[in-house]
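ping. complex inputs:
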Amino acid sequence: MRAIIGRELRSYYNSAIGYVFAAFILLFVGIYTMAINLKGYVSNFEFSLGQMSFVYILAIPIITMRMIAEEKRQKTDQLLYSLPMGMTRVVLGKYFAALIVLAVPVAIICFYPLILSSYGKVNLLSAYGSIFAFFLLGASLISVGMFLSSVTESQVVAAVLSFIAMLINFFISQLANLVSASSMSSFIAMAVLVVVLSIIIRLLVKSGIFAVIFGLVCEIGLIVMFISSRSSFEGLFPTVMKGISMFDRFYSFINGVFDITSVVYFVMVSLVFVFLTIQSLEKRRWN
Amino acid sequence: MIEVRNLTKIYGDHAAVSDLSFTVPSGQIYGFLGPNGAGKTTTMNIITGCLAATSGSVSINGYDIFEDADKAKRLIGYLPEEPPLYPDMTPYEYLDFVAKAKRVPKAEREHRIDEVMKLTRITSVADRLIRNLSKGYRQRVGIAQAILGDPEIIILDEPTVGLDPKQIIEIRELIKSLGENHTVILSSHILSEVRALCDNVLIISRGKLVACDTPENLEKLFSGSSTIELTVRAEEDEVRNALSGIINILEISYKKVGDDGRAEVAITTDGKEDISEKVFFAFCDIRRPILRMNHVRASLEDVFVELTSAKDGAKVYAEKQEDAELESMSGDGSDEFYEGPGSEETEETGNEGGDEQ
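pong. complex structure:
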């Protein structure tokens, strides 16, 4: 696994990608710190972090697009398959290398609250809590991007896919608020969501039967739930979307709440998508 | 030792490999022959664990490639069809990565890398980016990767593709020397290469094993109808009359070339007996000169074409083997039978020689 981490880091920093990513993050943190903390006389560093977190939508695909897709295109995945180490170690190695690339700018950001605190009173606890959540958010978004990179051979397709995924993640809770809070509209929205999920499953797994079964089971479950307790559907859709959105969970840290369930959520998302990436690579052997 | 049992790989509704079984003993060079799309690469990918079989099993020195993947893979070095190289690394960095991934102990690593770079002659390009290397050098870096860590079994998928003739000779020598203390499987569609390198040949066609034998045995089995090519100075009638006495001849073709009475004659025989001497004396008798005589035997190429173009190559091969066994059983008798005419012929030679003097 250390061999993989070493190789990945070398390729991040031999090319411009590692530097561009760090520069991109630091540039926006710098701009927002200047605008909010320095010009706006606000002592909360976490607000700048909250405002600039949208940068992940663009920055994460930069590091995740090549992770697996490039191996497939160069046919170097054959080497990885024939080496005496399982796909788990390969994928974890790649994931940890990407985390290190993410940790570099985050480590630099850690100095900002300290610098600010020498000119006034800064709530260091919430600032560092937010930086920690910022890193976790990045880590789980990287796992999503890595998985999307494993479903295609083209870096461009991988980048576009993860860009869309990040974008949906970013806007989903705001969009969900547009759905009226009545139980009927929540039910319809959930039903549509299940159909969309089934289509995504069909595209990823390439098994129509599996997607149809998944869709049917979920839809029937929804109908049963809707008939048995209609009231529980009131405002359900926006709540579910808020729960799913990683950015929304990050904002609670900005507001000074160190939410353990959200930490668990970020870790779970990372684990699930690392697992899915491993499965996606293992599956390639069976096709 | 590699044991492949009832290997089947199905893509959609197309069977790339079906019910393939063979065993490769340690310390031999095996050649994998087959036309394009016969399933060579698929089989190699399955043996090395890059691909999962639909059914069947592969075991390397007793370790199943799926159950004991790590142990089995540590015994194998694999060069896939396209060398799996990272273009943004130098050969040294790349080999260092592979050595780490193959868990070559740190103390030996540098020494091992130097060793394989010397063997594959890439030391001079060790610090150039792989991106900038020519196809030949890339192929060699790929081979270096496969033999790094001294695996017992080396599997090479078309190792000499894209190399110039001098490099091909070098790589063949390297493979030959590797074969002295490794098990090597190589696939190729260059028959002369397989002929020169391999102790044994596996011919597969349409995903099935057709034949497995030494190249010499295959050629012997398929020597069936051999052809003798002659350049003579004689008319067609004279040739046909002269040769009418030899019973083994199936067909004679005659073609005039040039104005000085030269003709090309091709004699197809049933291959049961070498008739070149008889042909020689037949022309002596009519006092017509043979200017050139060439005995064309079935080569590995013919074997390959015959086996892979047949609908059921394995059956053709089995029939040939049966024939050969029958012949060898009646072999003792027939040898004695031939001794008579053989000695007569030598006497005749003496007579003829005398005549000419």
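Chain B is about 40% helix and 25% strand.
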